[in-house]
Specification:
CATH class of the largest domain: Alpha Beta
Largest sheet: 14 strands, mixed
Number of domains: 2
CATH topology of the largest domain: Aminopeptidase
Number of strands: 14
Strand content: 25-35%
Structural class: alpha+beta
Length: 374
Amino acid sequence: MSLEIKAVESKGGLKAFVKLPHKIFKGCAQWVPPLTKEEINTLDPSENPAYEDAEAKLFLAFKNGEPVGRIAGIISHAANKKFHTRNARFGWFDSIEDYHVAESLFSAVKAWAEQRGMESLTGPHGFTNFDRQGMLIEGFEYPGTAHTIYNHPYYGDFVERYGFVKDVDYVEIQSFAPENGLDPRYLKIKERIEQRSDIRLLKFKTKQEAVERGLELFRLLNQTYVDIYGVIPLNDNYIQHLIKKFIAYINLDLLCCTVDLSGRMVGFMVTMPSLTKAFKKANGKLFPFGWYHIMRGLKGGDCVDLLLVAVKEEYRKKGVAVLMLTSMVEKCLSMGVKRSESGPMLENNGLVQSLHKYFPSLTHKRRRIHKIRF
């Protein structure tokens, strides 16, 4: 059977690129379909300000005229400038269970990257850390989330066969609500921290108040995540794009921020109701009923996703993380939450992983960024 690799050059091609996973994962109970419109906007240079500091090339694999694989090649100029590298990235990789398809897709990105003067290729990841990243290598039996990649087990075999090796691993932790409620010791710690005069919790009454502090929140993220693998600084234009994108998903009860005496933000924790079930029901479509499932999911359920946590370095030994975590857990328990899913955490990030030690928990997934040198 003939195999052909084609660059995506049209809106129709982009739509086919975005919708291909519905074929690859048909019948897979663990896969969570992303929203088609959001995927298209992320990959459209006219819609995604990340292209201000990056370029990309999308490829589709066809067998006898039918799409059977896809991949995006990305060059983040911001990342290469920060890390003094000449590295390309691959993302949005999916393939049927045929190594020749995967090999041809990797080779297409490699050739494009070499033409652009790159010396290595890493992935899967996107333009920034706000895109899905990391290939799942353990925990295939667990459902994915609305914020992470799910892939078939054979993907890992394909990248290794091509010559990729481990660059870094991420782990994900599932935590469970304590049967007898929050340990009174943590409540006492929270009370002691709250009695101090230099730290207080910031409560938002409206989404507009959260939007007004959004720029400050992401600038704090830039500051505290500066040394984390692969993280590039977000410019104000991209930050405003993220605020606009995620404002609809904000649940004010699950947005926790701390400020100092002058009202400056020193820490934040972003949690949201799990949208796994809602996204599966939406099946990539907002209309006619996808929006209903998502809005209903945002009202809460028995699971939450812990997405982001950051604390200024000078406040990390002052109990700020414990204060926010305890406050968040109190809110979750009052909402009937039974468990939480963490986002991907670097395997050596003991500080963030330690937040889960306060509850029954299980490290249930591992994902990997792979690397190959030319």
